[in-house]
């Protein structure tokens, strides 16, 4: 099986386009909504953080399915790999509907909590969130499909799906917000339309494989066991991000607006760097599935090198654009000034992040989920969250909040590097 640099870049390129689908939805929203004013931008920041939390299972379905499907694919069992995707899709529908129901119940209190209490920002955030949540089943179905498609190393189908969905969103969002006059709510409607379309195309790709489409509870149970550690890992991320958003919201609308701009840019760049992690996950999983430990380690070294180079290049670009880039997202001078305060942290994290995300992918592809979970939880509980809270207590400003994110990245970088240098993650076979 091919583990060459060409294959790595092919998988990474495809993974990047797929990974940035949801952040592009929010980046388009941020750019369009940002020119409505400070309050709508801050509302999008609060509601977007909650929407990401509700979609937490998408990450677990995606990464969990990729690892299991890749091992079957490496062992020469493509049909079993696709069946993993079918069962993940059933889980996506079930949990998407549950998340939608729970989200509608908590939308009001949750947005008021993040926005710092009742007011214009909280009301606007709640309105956006209640609409956007109808896209949750589609988000999870797309994630499940991406998982098995990556596992069988299909680099074309995921790209077609997200390109079409994002074209729909990019066209619909500004039209619904401005000429139609729906304002902030128009961006939420555009997201739901695009996500639902993408989910329909994913299901069509699955049906073409001609594998059994009925629920298989034993397989779903195994996927839930694998996903348990990934859910906790994702919860650590989202708990940290929600804490940071809540702290920024209490600092003021300008700080929350700048945090929204900075976080969406970081998420976008993180997913660009994470594309190498997805390539590593698929290739490492396939190599271990057929028992080739040497290929697994060589792949780990290559993607780490590529991630480091990509992180450094992106960091240089953002350092050069520190003044211009914030102006793309907002004309508010107060928000721009706050963005400049967090910018050094945003730039500094990129080279380290390039290596970290690649190592994450190696360990997830190897099924070393428990270690990744524990490191992420400890980094959040003893790094990001305490520093974000301290920023509010000691009046460190938005820069202090982002110092917490930088510490979160640094702790994980050290722990992942130590793990991959050893051999405990190198376990061969169809499953771990």
Which sheet architecture does the biggest sheet show? none
Task: Report the total helices.
Answer: 16
Q: How would you classify the helix and strand content by structural class?
A: mainly alpha
N- and C-termini, Cα separation: 20 Å
Number of strands: 0
Percent of residues in β-strands: under 5%
Summarize the helix and strand pattern as letters: HHHHHHHHHHHHHHHH
Radius of gyration: 20 Å
Oligomeric state: single chain
Number of self-contained structural domains:
1
- Give the % helix: over 70%
Mean pLDDT: 85
Note the overall shape: globular
State the low-pLDDT regions, or none: none
Note down, in words, how this protein is organized.
- The protein is mostly helical and 432 residues long.
- The protein has one domain (5-421).
- It has helices at residues 5-19, 21-34, 38-54, 56-74, 78-115, 120-132, 136-151, 157-177, 184-207, 217-251, 253-289, 293-320, 325-329, 333-365, 369-393, 398-421.
- Helix 4 runs antiparallel to helix 5 (78-115) and helix 5 runs antiparallel to helix 6.
- The longest helix is centred in the first third of the chain and has 38 residues, at 78-115.
- The protein is globular, with a radius of gyration of 20 Å.
- The two termini are 20 Å apart.
- The model has no long low-confidence stretch (mean pLDDT 85).
- It is a multi-pass membrane protein.
């Amino acid at each position: 099986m091919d583990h060459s640099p060409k294959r790595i870049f092919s998988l990474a390129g495809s993974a990047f386009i797929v990974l940035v689908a949801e952040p592009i939805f929010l980046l388009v929203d941020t750019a369009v909504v940002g020119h409505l004013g400070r309050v709508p931008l801050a509302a999008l920041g609060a509601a977007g953080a909650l929407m990401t939390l509700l979609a937490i299972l998408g990450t677990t379905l995606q990464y969990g399915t990729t690892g299991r499907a890749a091992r079957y694919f490496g062992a020469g069992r493509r049909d079993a790999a696709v069946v993993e995707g079918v069962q993940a899709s059933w889980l996506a529908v079930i949990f998407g509907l549950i998340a939608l129901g729970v989200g509608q119940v908590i939308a009001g209190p949750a947005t008021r909590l993040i926005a710092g209490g009742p007011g214009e920002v909280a009301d606007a955030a709640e309105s956006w969130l209640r609409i956007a949540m109808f896209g949750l089943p589609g988000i999870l179905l797309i994630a499940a499909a991406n998982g098995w498609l990556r596992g069988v190393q299909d680099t074309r189908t995921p790209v077609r799906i997200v390109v079409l969905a994002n074209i729909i969103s990019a066209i619909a969002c500004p039209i619904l917000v401005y000429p139609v006059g729906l304002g902030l709510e128009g961006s939420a409607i555009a997201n739901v339309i695009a996500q639902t379309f993408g989910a329909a195309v994913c299901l069509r790709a699955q049906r073409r494989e001609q594998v059994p489409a009925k629920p298989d509870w034993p397989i779903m149970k195994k996927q839930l066991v694998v996903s348990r550690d990934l859910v906790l890992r994702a919860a650590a991320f989202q708990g940290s991000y929600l804490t940071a958003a809540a702290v920024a919201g209490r600092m003021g609308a300008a700080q929350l607006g700048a945090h929204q701009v900075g976080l969406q840019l970081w998420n976008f760049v993180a997913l660009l760097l994470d594309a190498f992690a997805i390539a590593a996950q698929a290739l490492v999983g396939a190599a271990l599935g057929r028992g080739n430990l040497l290929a697994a380690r060589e792949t780990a070294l290559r993607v780490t090198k590529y991630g480091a180079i990509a992180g450094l290049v992106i960091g240089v670009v953002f350092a050069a654009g520190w003044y211009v880039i914030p102006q793309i997202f907002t004309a508010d001078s107060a928000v721009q000034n706050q963005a400049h305060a967090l910018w050094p942290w945003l730039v500094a994290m990129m080279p380290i992040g390039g290596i970290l995300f690649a190592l994450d992918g190696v360990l997830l592809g190897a099924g070393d989920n428990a270690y990744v979970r524990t490191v992420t939880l400890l980094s959040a509980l003893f790094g990001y969250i305490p520093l974000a809270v301290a920023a509010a207590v000691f009046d460190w400003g938005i820069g202090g909040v982002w110092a917490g994110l930088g510490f979160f990245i640094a702790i994980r970088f050290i722990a992942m590097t130590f793990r991959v240098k050893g051999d405990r993650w190198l376990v061969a076979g169809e499953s771990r």
